[in-house]
Amino acid sequence: MLEFFCGFDDLVRWVEHGVRPDGEDVLAPDLFNMFGIAGTTHIGMGADLQAKHGDDEFLGKMDEAWRYLIDRMGTDPARTGCIGHCMGGRLLIPFAADHPSVKAIVLYYPSVRDEPETGHRPRHAFHLARTLQCAALVFAAGQDYIATPAIQGPLWQSFLANGKLVEWHFFSDAQHGFRHPDNPGFQPYYADLTWPLTTGFLQRTV
Predict the structure, then answer these.
(1) Which residue among 72, 92, 129, 156 is least packed, with the fewest CB closer than 10 Å?
(2) Considering only CA atoms, which of 75, 64, 54, 79 is closest in space to residue 135?
(3) How far apart are CA 156 and CA 39, in angstroms?
């Protein structure tokens, strides 16, 4: 399993504790460190990093992590799922489009915006989600200030259009970042609620 984080922090430790008892391989690449930004947590820094680097650069780093998981750790690519939060969730949509062997993706409040395609972000999630060949689990937050409910609706429709398994959970009072202990929007109730849904989904689909 690949999981994309904002640093090796409490959330990573939580995930490793939750997954490793099931005997799964877990690789949690820190995209910030891969771009040369030091530190163990980078909450609130995603917008600045995305302003400096285009999606193609991010996807190149994610592919490096994928190759490490497959080539160095010996993980079966046909039995691999990916989890992403915020920026990582948004980027997992083009990543999964480029890696059709990925069996399942789990997106926590993906930071999709209603914006035009540009050279910086050449492929919008609204268009890509309908092309995916993997199962998808999405957690959408009603109080998300990035991917607002008005954006979540078209994204949901795009996922449904690909004909693959889609599990979509919407929590009207959830905040962006509800699962991250170091985030101001952390909500333990939803963090605890969604993790069994995540592990159950991956057990069924990967």
Answers:
(1) 72
(2) 79
(3) 34
Type of residue numbered 171: F
CA 117 to chain CA centroid, nearest Å: 20
- Residues shown for the chain: 206
Q: What is the pLDDT of residues 55-104, one digit of tens each?
A: 999 899 999 999 999 998 899 988 999 999 998 899 999 999 999 999 99
Please list the alpha-helical segments (H only) found in 109-187.
125-128, 149-161
Supply 95's token pair: 């990543």
Q: Where are the alpha helices (DSSP H) in the chain?
A: 10-19, 31-34, 46-52, 55-67, 87-98, 125-128, 149-161, 188-205
On whether the pTM is more than 0.85, the answer is: yes
